[in-house]
């Protein structure tokens, strides 16, 4: 894990940091099994949620046994993708996504996003970045840097026309700092997609 990074969702769900969980596994000897064994042990002994149990097991096996986890690529580091198909055409969804009502659901505390390539943006909790690609109503590509991350990630938001006048909303993020941040962002994008769908 990268020093200084915050993991609010993991800590809220479990009261422990990634290093706490990895240290606990190492000291207990429970890390000698398979990923399924470790996941079952974490759930049974500590009541850790299934998604977080899988992340802890994968991180442990990567650190101590060199087993590459899902979501780690050679070119773009850790990445995550979340998709949700909603009952809307791309245009109204784009309007919501880029509005003062929609932005806080996925970008955080901000009222406006300058929809111009190379424009800088900032949002709550020290989030900042730069827009790289703006193609209404189908694509945003931007850097995405939280104050506690060592380097920016790349976030792509796409609106893909689907059958029946529906649209698939896709969040894809790469160059994430570690496996735990990957799960934090998976949960954030899933929550954001659900929140946007509820406003349509």
Q: How do the strands and helices of this protein lay out in sequence?
A:
Layout: H1 8-14, H2 18-28, H3 35-46, H4 50-65, E1 72-73, E2 77-86, H5 90-97, H6 103-106, E3 120-123, E4 127-135, E5 139-144, E6 153-161, E7 167-176, H7 179-199
Antiparallel strand pairs: 1-2, 2-7, 3-4, 4-5, 5-6, 6-7
Helix pairs in contact: 2-4, 3-4
Protein name: Activator of Hsp90 ATPase 1 family protein
Domain Activator of Hsp90 ATPase homologue 1/2-like C-terminal: 89-200
Organism: Paenibacillus mucilaginosus 3016
Write a short abstract of this structure:
The protein is α+β, with helices and mostly antiparallel strands and 200 residues long. The chain has helices at 8-14, 18-28, 35-46, 50-65, 90-97, 103-106, 179-199, and strands spanning 72-73, 77-86, 120-123, 127-135, 139-144, 153-161, 167-176. A seven-stranded antiparallel sheet has the order 1-2-7-6-5-4-3, with helices on one face.
């Amino acid at each position: 894990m990268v020093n200084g990074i915050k993991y609010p969702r993991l800590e809220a769900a479990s009261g422990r940091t990634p290093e706490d969980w990895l240290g606990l596994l190492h000291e207990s000897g429970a890390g000698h099994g398979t990923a399924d064994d470790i996941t079952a042990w974490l759930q049974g002994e500590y009541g850790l949620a299934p998604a977080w149990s899988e992340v802890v097991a994968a991180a442990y096996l990567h650190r101590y046994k060199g087993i590459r986890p899902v979501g780690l690529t050679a070119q773009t580091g850790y990445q995550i993708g979340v998709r949700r198909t909603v009952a809307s055409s791309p245009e109204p969804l784009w309007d919501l996504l880029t509005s003062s009502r929609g932005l806080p659901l996925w970008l955080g505390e901000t009222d406006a996003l300058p929809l111009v390539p190379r424009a800088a943006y900032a949002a709550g909790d020290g989030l900042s970045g730069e827009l790289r690609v703006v193609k209404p109503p189908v694509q945003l590509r931007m850097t995405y840097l939280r104050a506690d991350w060592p380097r920016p990630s790349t976030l792509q938001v796409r609106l893909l026309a689907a059958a029946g006048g529906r649209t698939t909303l896709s969040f894809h993020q790469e160059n994430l700092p570690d496996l735990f941040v990957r799960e934090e962002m998976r949960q954030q994008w899933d929550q954001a997609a659900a929140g946007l769908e509820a406003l349509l």
